[in-house]
UniProtKB/TrEMBL annotation, chain A:
GO cellular component, one term: nucleus
Compartments where found: Cytoplasm; Nucleus
Source organism of the structure: Zophobas morio
A Pfam family that the UniProt record links to this protein: zf-rbx1
Assembly mode: Catalytic component of multiple cullin-5-RING E3 ubiquitin-protein ligase complexes (ECS complexes, also named CRL5 complexes) composed of CUL5, Elongin BC (ELOB and ELOC), RNF7/RBX2 and a variable SOCS box domain-containing protein as substrate-specific recognition component. Also interacts (with lower preference) with CUL1, CUL2, CUL3, CUL4A and CUL4B; additional evidence is however required to confirm this result in vivo. Interacts with UBE2F. Interacts with CSNK2B, the interaction is not affected by phosphorylation by CK2.
Coiled coil (residue ranges): none
InterPro entries: RING-box_E3_Ubiquitin_Ligase, Znf_RING, Znf_RING/FYVE/PHD, Znf_RING_H2
Pathway linked to the protein: Protein modification; protein ubiquitination
GO terms of biological process kind: intracellular signal transduction; proteasome-mediated ubiquitin-dependent protein catabolic process
Catalytic activity: S-[NEDD8-protein]-yl-[E2 NEDD8-conjugating enzyme]-L-cysteine + [cullin]-L-lysine = [E2 NEDD8-conjugating enzyme]-L-cysteine + N(6)-[NEDD8-protein]-yl-[cullin]-L-lysine; S-ubiquitinyl-[E2 ubiquitin-conjugating enzyme]-L-cysteine + [acceptor protein]-L-lysine = [E2 ubiquitin-conjugating enzyme]-L-cysteine + N(6)-ubiquitinyl-[acceptor protein]-L-lysine
The name this protein goes by in its record: RING-box protein 2
From TrEMBL, chain B:
Residue ranges, annotated region (Disordered): 1-20
Keywords: Cell cycle, Cytoplasm, DNA damage, DNA repair, Isopeptide bond, Nucleus, Phosphoprotein, Ubl conjugation, Ubl conjugation pathway
GO terms for cellular component: Cul4A-RING E3 ubiquitin ligase complex; Cul4B-RING E3 ubiquitin ligase complex; cytoplasm; nucleus
Keyword Coiled coil among UniProt keywords: no
Protein's name in the database: Cullin-4B
Pfam families: Cullin (PF00888), Cullin_AB (PF26557), Cullin_Nedd8 (PF10557)
Signal peptide: none
Location in or out of the cell: Cytoplasm; Nucleus
Segments forming domain Cullin family profile: 432-661
Similarity comment: family membership: Belongs to the cullin family.
GO biological process terms on file: DNA repair; protein ubiquitination; ribosome biogenesis; ubiquitin-dependent protein catabolic process
This protein's pathway: Protein modification; protein ubiquitination
GO molecular function: ubiquitin protein ligase binding
Lineage, top ranks: Eukaryota, Metazoa, Ecdysozoa, Arthropoda, Hexapoda
């Protein structure tokens, strides 16, 4: 790690040098690609056993889709840092206001967006 | 007038004596006229009934007049008598007249006189004797006429002609005679139902002697058959003679017995031999044309001289001997060629002919099906032909569709069979056709493809969907299609958004929303990314205006929608890292609870480059960018250095260097020269780089990658299938609660839409038992129980 930083320092110096006698290559445009996913510990919702990246079972069955077919089924994190589908959890807490995994009192830490 | 007509039916002939002569004359004239006018044999037959008609007609007139004057008719005082020898003298007169007619000599008596004499005899109860006398006279004449033929040894044609003359004159004579003896027909014959009319009597006698002398009969029949045979061999024959003689047989009611059977037998013999011979000698199309010609000829024959009752049997015989017997031969020998060479005309003929015979179309359909399967298999099975497989399939489908539509009259049996055959052969090779179809679609939807207009593309996609429909492993298609779609979207290589959307909607229609939801998600991601990039630009302008100008765009992909890419860590220049971090921070501030993973394999850049010859722009991948940027620090780097500096995976780096130093556009020079990259190679900046273009795209070398990718894709499909199998097993078990192994397997095979091996199913069942979804029955190890 430290080696690469050193490399980069060297790079920038060299770049500066090159700009004096004009750099041979300059980056003009960059099209990067990144993949997003929910920042979760366990990628399966313990309530419906479906991956949190997919819509929960109930949503899949009901197919409530917007025009593109993306199901509006977000993830919710509790204070215990366990995560579930929001739909699954909101049904769960009606019966038992505890996290199904650690039995702690359930309170929402944050919601996926 | 009305009075004597009413007396025709009167049983007492005596009362007629008081009728005035004049009125009788009038009646004679009327009726003779009526009967003389029709002298064709055809009409004569009907004439037997004309007396009945006459009565009816006259009765109508009869009912007209009511009179006021009273007319009283009294009997004569003494009964009038005929002379005693009246019978003999009159018969003498009549018989001489009949003989004159039979010998075609002039008649010395007036017809009117003769007619009246007959009438008188009928009125005086001499009718039965008269009939008997007449019968004997005709009998003798007909006998002598026919017996003449017994001894004849002349040429057959002449014999036939003479026979025809005899028959014709017999008919004419009988018409004359009947005219004279009309009264006999109208009274005596009508009153005695078991006596035949004079005309029929003539026919009966003719038949009797004709049948009696079998030699004459067979000579006639054989003569006829000979003529027909001659005509079948292409000679011109006297059709009128044939027709007339056959009419004779019909009229004598021996057409069936004496002629038809023999005729059909000889037909059968002839065509059986001809069928065998020609099947050997001729090619199938010529044979078919010949059969068609024959059927046409026989139909003509029926039209021109045969009795129409023969038609069905005759045509049937020809069809049987020329077609039914050879169905298999024709199909084996000729169908494949006809189909291969797309000979529409011959195929239409084939269909038309085969539709005439029993089971013909079924057999044809069967052979058609087998041909498609065989031909299709050769297209699909050979890995050498993978490149052209889809195009060939499309062409093949077009050709077969065309044949069904234009030659097989759009017969549903055939179009269904066509579908079945395609579905069968296309799945003979698992996965590959699906993959190639997906790739074919990709090649058509990619921007470089400018050969088609939008409508053409649309039509093509429709055709591809037809092929797609046949494929069992639709998930394989989806996986490859998705991979290609990802490439098109990320590199911005899609030819037209409309075409993409249209293809998507077709897939959706075909397989339902579940199939396409992820593909749709990919489009959604692309649009969301556009919005994000606009927002990011504004963000950059406001917050960090001091940063160097770099046009950075990011495509944010939803994990799960897109194919999975190997995560790869590379070392970016600090400047790029900075941009990346700014973006990440920006994005996560907008989207709570997400994490981002950069995909360096998918990134690409535009570089400004300065060579001796001038400025250029290079369109390159991110990996290529990283390597090229290193040459800003020094003109020359070794492989090991580059590897350490960029941290690109070894194989990937070698390919990248190859693309830069060994490809078409060589920005770098490799030392020493050569195609393969070795560990000790050095690379030098190529300042002498020239290219006529300003903007140059340097392609990544991907050859090796595709086989890997392909395997990975297949692997992923297999993974997905396992979940589907699991789900299906659980679904079935949940419904049935307990089920034997075999029943479970067969139900699974029914539910799953892709080809699976029973051994794979077994593994999944084991796995589900391990995970406590189900259990083996304790008493019966072949039985499973569902565990709730």
């Amino acid at each position: 790690m430290s080696a690469s930083i050193a490399d980069e320092n060297e790079n920038t110096e060299r770049l500066d040098d090159a700009s004096k006698n004009e750099k041979m290559f300059t980056l003009k445009k960059w099209n990067a690609v990144a993949m997003w996913s929910w920042d979760v510990e366990c990628d399966t919702c313990a309530i419906c056993r479906v991956q949190v990246m997919d819509a929960c079972l109930r949503c899949q069955a009901e197919s409530k889709k917007d025009s593109y077919g993306k199901q509006d089924c977000v993830v919710v994190w509790g204070e215990c840092n366990h995560s579930f589908h929001y739909c699954c959890m909101s049904l769960w807490v009606k019966q038992n206001n505890r996290c199904p995994l650690c039995q702690q009192e359930w309170s929402i830490q944050r919601m996926g967006k | 007038m009305s009075r004597h007509v009413s007396k025709i039916g009167d049983p007492s002939p005596l009362k007629r004596l008081d009728e005035p002569q004049i009125s009788k004359k009038i009646r004679l004239e009327i009726e003779v006229d009526e009967n003389m006018s029709d002298n064709s044999p055809d009409r004569n037959r009907r004439a037997n009934f004309s007396n009945v008609n006459g009565v009816n007609r006259n009765l109508n007139i009869h009912s007209v007049k009511p009179t006021t004057k009273k007319l009283i008719i009294k009997n004569f005082k003494s009964e009038p008598k005929l002379p005693d020898d009246y019978n003999e003298t009159t018969w003498k007169k009549l018989s001489s007249a009949v003989i004159a007619i039979q010998q075609s000599k002039p008649n010395e008596y007036l017809l009117e006189e003769l007619y009246q004499a007959v009438g008188n005899m009928c009125s005086h109860k001499m009718a039965s004797e008269l009939y008997k006398n007449l019968f004997e006279l005709i009998d003798a004449h007909v006998r002598s006429n026919i017996e003449k033929f017994k001894t004849e040894t002349m040429d057959r044609l002449l014999f036939l002609k003479k026979m025809n003359d005899t028959w014709q004159s017999h008919c004419n004579q009988m018409i004359m005679i009947r005219g004279i003896f009309l009264c006999l027909d109208r009274t005596y014959v009508l009153q005695n139902p078991n006596i035949s009319s004079i005309w029929d009597m003539g026919l009966d006698l003719f038949r009797k002697y004709f049948m009696l002398h079998t030699l004459v009969q067979t000579r006639v029949v054989e003569g006829l058959l000979m003529l027909i045979e001659q005509e079948r061999q292409g000679d011109k024959v006297d059709r009128i003679l044939l027709k007339s003689l056959l009419r004779m047989l019909t009229d004598l009611q021996i057409y069936n017995k004496a002629f038809e059977q023999k005729f059909l037998q000889s037909t059968e013999r002839l065509y059986a031999a001809e069928g065998q011979r020609l099947m050997q000698e001729l090619e199938v199309p010529e044979f078919l044309a010949h059969v068609d010609k024959r059927i046409h000829e026989e139909n003509e024959r029926v039209l021109h001289y045969l009795d129409s009752s023969t038609k069905y049997q005759l045509i049937h015989t020809v069809e049987k001997q020329l077609l039914s017997e050879h169905i298999n031969n024709i199909l084996q020998k000729g169908l494949d060629n006809l189909l291969e060479e797309n000979r529409l005309h011959d195929l239409s003929l084939l269909y038309q002919l085969f539709s005439r015979v029993k089971n013909g179309l079924q057999e044809l359909c069967h052979a058609f099906n087998a041909f498609i399967k065989k031909q299709g298999r050769t297209i699909v099975i050979d890995p050498e032909k993978d490149k052209t497989m889809v195009q060939e399939l499309l062409d093949f489908k077009d050709a077969m569709d065309n044949i069904v539509a234009s030659c097989f009259k759009k017969n549903e049996m055939f179009s269904n069979s066509l579908k079945e055959a395609f579905e069968h052969f296309i799945n003979q090779r698992t996965n590959k056709p699906a993959e190639l179809i997906a790739k074919f679609v990709d090649s058509k939807l990619r921007a470089g493809n400018k050969e088609a207009t939008e409508e053409e593309l649309e039509r093509l996609l429709d055709k591809i969907m037809v092929l797609f429909r046949f494929i069992h492993g639709k998930d394989v298609f989806e996986a490859f299609y998705k991979k290609d779609l990802a490439k098109r979207l990320l590199v911005g290589k899609s030819a037209s958004v409309d075409a993409e959307k249209s293809m998507l909607s077709k897939l959706k229609q075909e397989c339902g929303g579940g199939f396409t939801s992820k593909l749709e998600g990919m489009f959604k991601d692309m649009e969301l990314s556009k919005d994000i990039n606009v927002a990011f630009k504004q963000h950059l302008n406001i917050n960090t205006p001091e940063l160097m100008p770099l046009d950075m765009t990011v495509n944010i992909l939803t994990m799960g929608y897109w194919p999975t890419y190997l995560p790869m860590d590379v070392t970016l220049p600090a400047q790029m890292v900075k941009f990346q971090d700014i973006f990440k921070e920006f994005y996560l501030s907008k989207h709570n609870g997400r994490k981002l993973q950069w995909q360096p394999t998918l990134g690409h850049c535009v570089l400004k480059a300065r060579f001796k010859a001038g400025q250029k722009e290079l369109v390159v991948s991110l990996f290529q960018t990283l390597v090229i940027l290193l040459f800003n620090e020094s003109d020359e780097h070794g492989f090991e250095y580059i590897k350490a500096a960029t941290n690109i995976e070894d194989g990937e780096l070698r390919r990248t260097l190859q693309s830069l130093a060994c490809g078409k556009a060589r920005v770098l020079n490799k030392i020493p020269k050569g195609r393969e990259i070795e560990d000790n190679d050095k690379f030098k900046f190529n300042n002498d780089f020239v290219n006529k273009l300003f903007r140059i795209k340097i392609n990544q070398i991907q050859m090796k990658e595709t086989t890997e990718e392909q395997k990975a894709t297949e692997e992923r499909v297999f993974q997905d299938r396992q979940y589907q199998i699991d789900a299906a097993i659980v679904r079935i078990m949940k419904m049935r609660k307990t089920l034997s192994h075999n029943l479970l397997i067969s139900e699974l095979l029914g539910q799953l839409k892709f080809p699976v091996k029973p051994s794979d199913l077994k593994k999944r069942i084991e796995s589900l038992i391990d995970r406590d979804y189900m259990e083996r029955d304790k008493d019966n190890s072949n039985q499973y129980n569902y565990v709730a």
